[in-house]
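Subgroup meeting minutes
Present: P.N., E.W., G.H.
Scribe: E.W.

1. P.N. recapped why we're keeping a running log of single-chain structure predictions: easier to compare across weeks, and new members can see raw inputs and outputs side by side.
2. G.H. added today's entry (799 aa).
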Amino acid sequence: MRILILVFIYIYCLLIPSITVKAQSIKFLSGKVTNHSNEPMMGNVSLLSVRDSILIKQQDFLDGTFQLSNINQKEVLIKLTSVEFADKFQHITFNGKENINLGTILVNGNNNQLNEVVIKNQASLLKYGSNGTLEVSVANTLLSTSSSVNELLGRVPNVIVSEGQISVLGKGEAIIYLNGILISNERFAAIPVSQIAKIEVISNPSSKYDAEGKAVINIITKKNFESGVMGTASQQITVSEFGGTSTNTLLDFNYNKGKVSIIGNYGLQLGKNRELLYTTRTRPDPTEFMKSELTTDWRRRFNNYSNFGFGLQYTFSESNYISLEYSGNINDLGGVVANRNSIATNNSNSFYATDVDRNDVRLNQFVNLNYNTITDDKGSSLFVGTQFSNYNGFTRDLIDENGLVNSFNTERYLKNNADNTINIINTQADYAKKINESSKLEAGAKVSYATIKTSSDFLIADDKNPEFVFDEDLSSDFKYEEKIGAAYINYSSSLGKKFNYSLGARGEWTNYELNTTAGGNQKFRKSYADIFPNVLLNMPLSDDLKLHASYVSRITRPRYQALNPYVVYQDPFTTIEGNPNLKPEKIYAFEIGAMYKKYDFKIGYTYKVDPISGAALRGINPNSYILRSLNLDKENSYFASISRSFTSKWWSSTNTVSMSYTKSVDNTYSFTLGATKPQIYLYTNNTFTIPDVFKIQLLAWYLGDKSYGLGDEYSRSIVTLGIERNFLNNALKLNFSANDIFKGFYASGNYTVGQTEIYYHRTYTTNYYKLVATYSFGNSKKTDYKKKEVEQTENSRAR
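Output recorded in log:
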């Protein structure tokens, strides 16, 4: 087959007429690959020399669209290849235009027929980058049936989603980017899964990426160039014996005509959700014996859980555009939180039943204005953008508390009236200078200003005093102002054909002032500056063997809520409170890796200073405990992993095995030092296709026990099975899935701090059945809307 292709190329080139040599040449090529049903194809585009068919450059494409820059040739031969269509060649000559758009390129199917059964090869789920980056395809996989981006990320290999955090195995908590620009947790939750083409897991981010976070997850949306209207409507129904039933309605709309592009999206979740936490706190010392068994049951009701967005873009030319977007989300959360706490001591036995009738409403809004331009024919670019973010929320919770102490009944009522406002302004500029084909200089700067105000009033009444009275101990006011200035520079180039590198540094200056009335009037003010260098080295020794090494340094600043000593009330002896004394966490990470054929190997080491953790610490009263974030002294972490993907005509499989070892050190809070042992991680994602009938997908992962010196975390796992079929010429897609079939996902563990032994077990609504119906409509594929989010580390800390 390869010989026939080479002969075809040779004959094709002989038939090409001679071309007049000119001083100018082709600089940029773009196009879109579709089949005769106007469906975007997935494959690879190669740029070949007309004279000798030598490969000039190549690029993979997932949604039919490709763009090749820095070509600098007067004539080239394009080769399009894929398991989805037959190879196609196209000869391009310079016609006076340096930037050439080939428009839509139609390709023919590449089907093998046997007894009237058509069989196609499966597309690979993963692609490994030479610098350790993992690229995960989303379209046409089990991942695309996720209800939200948060659920989607929990199904990505080496990504762990638990207790509100998104982490990369062996690295730690990750920050989220959208098309290369940092976004907030609230913003990324509003991204329609139907618009996501792929996800990049960047374990070794360069200085271009914000220093906040140990790793970067970059969500890349689909890009198309045709004009017209396109949209999707998706209805999801989720049924869980544990959590109840919920529905999720998702709509997205795209319009593009001439120089104007418009996008819009809306999502509405209704129904119920549940989370259950069982905790024991035991002081075994006979002189101060105490055992508390606490169950907290969050039975959430989504009154109006919605997100929305509207964007407008005007394109001045092929290399120059401006965009404006307004987006946001409304979280109207009701339901009941039921707390049951049984306490036994040497002197008494007591039981407290506390029910919280929740009435929490949040409105988050974002306004984003961006300008982007290509500054020269080599592809150098300038991006300038600004964003205003506003978070408004209020709480009007009514708390009913009943106590039974040595057969004596007590009852009281509490009102928690809280108001919270966060305003954040970000402005940034990024410039990338393409020096030549292998060298690029990147530089940028960012300025941000954040203000946070919270007031929390607790009112208490009981049988003796039925009138509600203000409680100063539980109530507090909080005000926080923060300014951050950042600048970075990054240079990438190569030395010969066997070595390329990237050197960079990012400088960040932080100034903040914190005022709170909790525990008396307290005021904190601090200013500090940091430099974060990084080095990335790549050594492609051959087509089969590629090596890489990296050093990166990062910082994790405390979330605003973690600094706020605002009280989340559970019962008279249990509260959740912030810690205004938290310090930022510093991270220094090393990694070396190798790609051999279709295997990907990695080993790494991470050292953390002042790592941010959490624990239940004893309060002022003998049996009271406060759950709060805190800084440990240091942490050492090692990891190793190997991954392998393979495809056949009917089966596509991705598999990963990882091992990590972590040791944490504390000299402040009297954690009891225990054993340390490695943690294993197993992942497999499989797709089985019966063409023109249905597709079966099986995803499973297992995270083993972990002992990190200061405590233990127990194993968890998920097995998900789905079946999918298309109807109405692929316009309608139906998917049915069963998630967490064996009920193996929960967060549990134990640790000992001071004289108290603590065990916890948290259960989520992960065991469910889901039916998803998605209908695509319109007269084109999606618009080429190119809005970027302004880099906003501060928004990610608003969680």
